[in-house]
Amino acid sequence: MSKRTVLVVAHTGRPGAVRSAQLVIERLTEAGIAVRVMSDEAGDIGCAGADVLPATSAAAEDAEVVIVLGGDGTLLRAADLARPVGTPLLGVNLGHVGFLAEAEREDLAATVDRVVTRRYDVEERMTVDVTVRLNGTVAGTTWALNEASIEKAERERMLEVVAEIDGRPLSHWGCDGVVCATPTGSTAYAFSAGGPVVWPEVEAMLVVPISAHALFARPLVVSPRSVVAVEVLPDTPRAVLWCDGRRTLDLPPGARVEVRRGSAPVRLARLHLTPFTDRLVTKFGLPVTGWRGRARARSEEAAGGQER
Q1: Which positions, given as ranges, span the membrane (predicted)?
Q2: Residue 209 vs residues 12, 159, 268: alpha-carbon distances, Å
Q3: Which 3-state string (H, E, C) describes 166-234?
């Protein structure tokens, strides 16, 4: 039987993340689990006993799970490594909202114990694949877990684009940009731009214009089988494509961005079967004072029993 292996990824710019990584490595090693760290993080972590690998998808290959210590940005960075080889990500939030994370800082020891005893589930999250074309030629390809956003590169002028759904033109927008998001990304950039919150199990793509000067500029929810295209008009300033706020491509006038369902999902390890509604309430601090749903249901059941 091959030895169990876990990759540890940390936001080494935060001292708390470094200390957490050291604790995780120590506990996993004591449990007889081999630990990997990436070469660009090893010096900061000071991880005696861990295997040091280059920061490529090979670091996550054949690993049981990737434990990510940081915020959503750190998890998105780890997703670059894990997605090609299908390794699940387990995020421990050391940042602010940490919507993609499964555990909080105070749960770190218990989280490691759950990994050691294999008490976690894995769910798949839809991604999008992105193709940039210029004069009919592919100029670049990339992908996103949260969103692909086409944004103006010059503040003083609006971006002029035409949106297309499934090969048919939809609308011309003068705008600051357009966000093409997954359900996972509905609580990220698309949320800030006024898009709807979509439950993760719903398979769909979101199209959200940013500050559009147009009569019809509502957020759209389209089929996961659709192909969304955004064309940068020839007489507009240059634009830029951002994917998950990490990967970027310049978009000269005339560029065309095509967004479709990703060929591979991102796999997330889950410790708790927490309803997404509860996650929204917790992460955004939503006011629910006065809710009596369960109490009312129990009262109605009791009343029904008495009537019988």
Answers
A1: none
A2: 35, 11, 29
A3: CCEEEEEEEECEEEEECCHHHHCHHHHCCCCCCCCCCCCEEEEEECCCCCCCCCEEECCCCCEEEEECC
Query: With 0-12 CB in 10 A as exposed, 13-18 as middle and 19+ as buried, what is 61?
Result: middle
CB 132 within 8 A of CB 241: yes
Numbered ranges of CATH 3.40.50.10330 in the chain: 5-125
Residues belonging to the active site: 72
The vertex-215 CA angle with 209 and 216, nearest 5°, equals: 50
The domain defined by 128-261 folds into: Tumour Suppressor Smad4 (2.60.200)
Does residue 190 have a known ligand-binding role? Answer: yes
What pLDDT is attached to residue 305?
A: 56
Nearest by Cα to 87 from 257, 279, 297, 268: 268
Going by C-beta distance under 8 Å and a sequence separation of 6 or more, which residues neighbour residue 148? 128, 130, 142, 179, 180, 181, 241, 242, 243, 257, 259
Class of domain 5-125: alpha beta
| SS3 of residue 126 by DSSP | coil
Mean pLDDT, rounded, for 85-105: 89
CATH 2.60.200.30, the chain: domain bounds: 128-261
What pLDDT is recorded for position 47?
75
Is 157 one of the annotated binding-site residues?
A: yes
Report the predicted TM-score, pTM, of the whole model to 2 decimal places. Answer: 0.90
Residue 208 in contact with residue 191, Cβ under 8 Å? no
pLDDT interval class at 272 (50, 70, 90)? confident
Tens digits of residue pLDDT in 214-236: 888 999 999 999 999 999 999 88
How distant is the alpha carbon of residue 155 from its chain centre? 27
Give me the mean pLDDT over the 3-30 stretch.
93
Q: Is residue 261 marked as binding?
A: no
* pLDDT of the residue at 114: 95
Residue 244 annotated as lining a ligand binding site: no
